[in-house]
Amino acid sequence: MAKKPRKALGRGLGALLEDSNTDQKSSNKESRDITDISSGASINEIPLEQIEVNPFQPRTDFDKQALEELAESIKVQGIIQPITVRKLSKDSYQLISGERRTQASKLAGLKSIPAYIRMADDQQMLEMALIENIQRENLNSIEIALSYQRLLTECDLKQEQLGDRVGKNRTTVNNYLRLLKLPPDIQLAIRDKRISMGHARAIINIDDVDKQLDVFKRILQDDLSVRKVEALVRELTSGESSEKEKPAKSEMPYEAKQVQSKLSSHFGTKIGMKIDKNNKGEIKIPFLSKDDLNRILDILSVEL
What pTM does this model have? Predict the structure, then answer.
């Protein structure tokens, strides 16, 4: 009977792992494989040297100190939660989830590690790695958004399907994805936890990139709360609607506006730009402090 792995995928990571017993029995009857993961009956001890890294692992940065702390815990407590692997050959396995535990076990001097074994194709490997990555507690909002985007594009999912995979409704998924439309400087600030997702969700309601960067600067300078930013954004957006009703001043060509917007995003500050009908003009780069000036000079690769 043909297997139906997609049905398991629709129930999230836990269901994926719970189905491993059925997959494994059907393809590797000669080995002592897992009986029922959900009941915790049987777990294999696999030599660490036989386990390959997951090529689809979305997480590439592991905190060294946290790994060392986990290694010390493993020395005392052992592996509490087994890793999950897929079998490639008789003595070769590929990691699906549990890379931190695997690395920490090597640091702790272990030679083998308890593991669940399941069958999975490359598509399932990617989905499971991304979903497990999303479920980490310390993941920042941009990392979650990027993982959601990868599931949509690389796994060819729709937002409703993605919501089923990660246990979130479509609105929540969309709120994360919208963060990826913000300028790079703001995305970096979210990733580095200089501003919260609440700040970012308020900023994204502003259509103009320059104004988004202005609000971002004010958040950092004045340590604005999310509520204050939301009030500020309401003022700005209401002002935008009234400005549209005023007679339009002479505007720059569309191409020049695009250049101005990209420059503002690149330098992390609102760039002033003027251009006449002969395509002559000027560009102004404002700075707020000596440190801000040095930051801009670094971007320009100017040495003093």
Answer: 0.47
pLDDT, tens digit, for every residue of 158-191?
A: 777 778 877 788 888 888 889 988 988 899 899 8
Q: Which of 45, 49, 69, 99 is catalytic?
A: 99
Question: How many whole angstroms separate alpha carbon 113 and alpha carbon 41?
Answer: 16
182 shares a domain with 150: yes
Active-site annotation holds for 99: yes
- Cα distances (Å, whole numbers) of residue 181 to 65, 156, 163, 185: 33, 20, 20, 11
Residue 140 and residue 68 share a domain: no
Residue partners of 95: CB distance under 8 A and separation at least 6: 51, 52, 53, 54, 57, 83, 84, 85, 102
Domain membership flag for residue 151: yes
CA–CA separation, 15 and 165 (whole Å): 10
User: CA 128 to CA 138: how far, in whole Å?
Assistant: 18
Total domain count, the chain: 3
Which domain range does residue 56 map to? 5-128
Highest-confidence range of 30-34, 99-103, 277-281, by mean pLDDT?
A: 99-103
- Does 14 score more than 50 pLDDT? no
The CB density around residue 296, as the number of other CB atoms within 10 Å, is 16
